[in-house]
Amino acid sequence: MKTLLLRPWGLSWARNPASTARAPGRADMGNLSRARRVTAALGFIGLLFAVLGIIMIVMVPSIIKQQVLKSASMMMENRPGFLKLMMTFVFSTLGQRAFMNRTVGEIMWGYDDPLIHLINQYFPNLLPFKGKFGLFAELNNSDSGLFTVFTGVKDFSRIHLVDKWNGVSKVNFWHSDQCNMINGTSGQMWAPFMTPESSLEFYSPEACRSMKLVYKEQGVFGGIPTFRFVAPNTLFANGSVYPPNEGFCPCRESGIQNVSTCRFNAPLFLSHPHFYNADPVLAEAVTGLHPNPKEHSLFLDIHPVTGIPMNCSVKLQLSLFLKSVKGIGQTGNIQPVVLPLMWFEESGAMEGETLETFYTQLVLMPKVLNYAQYVLLALGCVLLLIPIIYQIRSQEKCYLFWISFKKGSKDKEAVQAYSEFLMTSAPKGTVLQEARL
What we know:
alpha+beta; two-stranded antiparallel sheet; disordered N terminus; disordered C terminus
């Protein structure tokens, strides 16, 4: 009788020399330990990247917002390198360069910019402009704010002076109380009865500050006498040249004013065109600038009696400070320079029917009345002299008549007496003579 032995497959295969497992050695244990360490390291790195990704998702928008508020690369000079690298990547992705070619119309009235579009898409209330970007894109159908001015009813010397602008009596853009003051008028009218010692003070919302113009000379516009007021050399001088302007600093060369504090911290500077009345080094650093007073100075011609502007020409230049920023590839090797962006002239003059009416009522009529008073005085004197002369002549005639009458009476008496004498008898020897009167 044969016996059948049943064995499990595992035991049967274990007896197969080709498939028999051997006990693990030291080398296998080392490989296993190494694999575990690599796996743990990869897991830790993955966890770190995941945490970093979450942090970036939360923080990057606020970081980008902060940097945009501080005007991108120029404000990132002292920022960490990874932020500079990030902004360089963003600029490169959107095709942004340090310089671009645009038409005058695009610069003034706006053009589509992918960076502006991206910012407005994710941060809709961050920038003050929507859609196209242009220097004057947002100025159509706009104003310079709400001015509250004195009427001069209680104090005539304060007529047209600004009490508040947009509800505030002073601004907070600058670093001194004097520079933050809102002085003068809104720039449309001034107090009447000006003298050469008068000055023109006004608040400019565009420049975020008060300005003062000084008297230069008398003139005539359209037959109307005027006083010409111009900008003094100290208008845009820096604090080292003119200490009262220290509050507008940080300053660069004299003759340009830093307006970054009221223009979203962008490195913008305000000056006369071609850097007129500024440090010569500014004009020498840019090719093609030739400052001269005839083309680049500003003036206002005011009728001194009424304080109304008759003719004006306000010329200002907007410049941008540029320099290379390490870590921002788009800035390249730009040398530090205050580069003019544009300069503009805002001029106006009274003309047409308004000028004729103004001339008639405020020049011609006062002249006529001025001459008329002397004519009337002379005519009155002449008319007054007529009865006086007549009276004097009448008195002279009466006097002559009286004199002649009196003389005639005396002559008659003399004739009569002489006749009586002749009629008397003459003594003997007397010779009678004929007497003729």
